[in-house]
Amino acid sequence: MEFTYKLSEIDNAAAKILAHLKSQVLLFNAPMGAGKTTLIKALCHQLGVTDEITSPTFSLVNEYKGSKVDVMHFDLYRIEHTEQLYDIGFEDYLIKDAFQLIEWPELAMPFLSEYQELTIEIIDSSTRKLSLKPVQKD
């Protein structure tokens, strides 16, 4: 699935993504400043999260309780080695019955058995192109 959206339409984009998800593990591929965390905030609101949603850049993971499902939001930008994922208990997070939203997922790939990839491309300052790939199984 591919579509283009304006940042002002991000809630509609989030609803469209959730309607097409086939996996609870969603990997975000996009350059810095493309709006990954902004989109994750919209997804969390759609899933009934009422807490303040912030980037887990320094904490690496934020857990949110939603009215529909729980959400684990990972930002692995600062992870340099796979061993660091073991240190934070990454495997334990993955077995929870929750959506796993993972920014900068490259080093997490060996831990994942099923996932979907979401790619965001910057068109201009207020427009993004989104691609959601089918479920991948390793």
TrEMBL record:
Keyword Cell wall biogenesis/degradation: no
Entry keywords, A to Z: ATP-binding, Cytoplasm, Magnesium, Metal-binding, Nucleotide-binding, Transferase, tRNA processing
Pfam families: TsaE
Main location: cytoplasm
Compartments in which it is found: Cytoplasm
GO biological process: tRNA threonylcarbamoyladenosine modification
GO CC terms in record: cytoplasm
UniProt xrefs under SUPFAM superfamilies: P-loop containing nucleoside triphosphate hydrolases
GO molecular function: ATP binding; metal ion binding; transferase activity
Family per record: Belongs to the TsaE family.
PANTHER family per UniProt: TRNA THREONYLCARBAMOYLADENOSINE BIOSYNTHESIS PROTEIN TSAE (PTHR33540)
NCBIfam families in UniProt: T6A_YjeE
Protein name, entry field: tRNA threonylcarbamoyladenosine biosynthesis protein TsaE
Native source species: Nonlabens dokdonensis
